[in-house]
Design goal:
The protein is α/β, with parallel strands linked by helices and 292 residues long. It has eleven helices and ten strands. The model has no long low-confidence stretch (mean pLDDT 91).
């Protein structure tokens, strides 16, 4: 059990600030983010060149330390030592919230283990910003970030997620969006999807429609810029199934590599069963299959 008092607690250590940066439009930088970057002792940046442009724009003189996926392992001990010496660090990614698609999470874990305060300085987030304007249900939702690149792995991923009722959020490169939508169409069927391009920038664009419609649009006009995909969750219409069918569905998910508890949890949620009751019923059925 650990309790962090971010501002009222007494600690000889510095603080690790996770500072959001704009995802395109520099006017989205917050007053607090600017002030924090000015006051910390150094900034751990994913790309010092990109962050340097941001610092120059807002006249922030704080020194930078390069911190990215390729040097994280060697840099984390140095950064932790810096914090334990009483110095504060702001960690930033190239755009949006740190720790989402960069090595920030590894630094956060070690900082917490060392009882160093980790403080969020909130701001722009591409996934949530796109979701609330997409027109698809904003809650519940699941954020997945970047998808597997290989077609087979992608289809396998979609197969595990196809029955999820939550709206799903993905990041994708513009040159891979068409292939991704083809794989999604093959597994999910022709669901509603929103393609968001160049969020917060002058060429910001939302393409809303069925997966097949977006594929036609992309074929006519190739995509440029940073892209997100917001995908409708599985239908909430509950299909009536016999107990045996439910048990076989759980078994199929386990055979695909899913842990038993997770498989039962997903099937229970999908068919509106009590998870504990389904677990007990499946356990009895499993034992019967073994004994027979």
């Amino acid at each position: 059990m650990q309790i962090q008092k971010s501002f009222k607690g007494q600690s000889p250590y510095g603080k690790l600030y996770l500072v959001a940066t704009p995802i395109g439009n520099l006017d989205d930088m917050t007053f607090r983010a600017i002030q924090t970057l000015k006051e910390v002792d150094c900034i751990a940046a994913e790309d010092t060149r990109n962050t340097g442009l941001l610092l120059k724009h807002f006249d922030i003189p704080t020194k930078q330390i390069s911190f990215h996926e390729h040097n994280a392992k060697e840099k984390i001990p140095d950064l932790i030592g810096f914090l334990k010496a009483g110095q504060s660090i702001a960690q930033v990614s190239d755009a949006g919230l740190p720790s989402i698609s960069d090595p920030g999470h590894d630094l956060v874990k070690v900082a917490i283990e060392e009882e160093i305060a980790v403080v969020t300085v909130p701001g722009a987030s591409a996934g949530i910003s796109a979701l609330i304007a997409s027109g698809l249900a904003p809650q519940p939702h699941i954020f997945y970030g970047f998808l597997p690149r290989k077609s087979g792995q992608q289809k396998q991923f979609f197969d595990l997620k196809k029955d999820y009722p939550e709206t799903q959020i993905f990041y994708e490169s513009p040159h891979r969006v068409a292939d991704t939508l083809e794989n999604m169409l093959a597994v999910y069927g022709d669901r509603s999807v929103v393609l968001v391009r160049e969020l917060t920038k002058i060429y910001e664009e939302y393409q809303r429609g069925k997966i097949s419609e977006l594929l036609e649009s992309i074929a006519e006009t190739p995509l440029k810029g940073e892209c997100l995909l917001i995908v409708e969750g599985a239908s909430q219409d509950v299909e009536e199934k016999d107990d045996e069918d439910l048990f076989l569905e759980i078994q199929a998910r386990i055979q695909q590599g899913m842990k038993k508890n997770q498989a039962i949890k997903e099937v229970a949620k999908l068919y509106q069963w009590n998870k504990s009751q389904l677990y007990a019923a499946y356990h009895d059925w499993e034992e019967k299959q073994f004994n027979d």
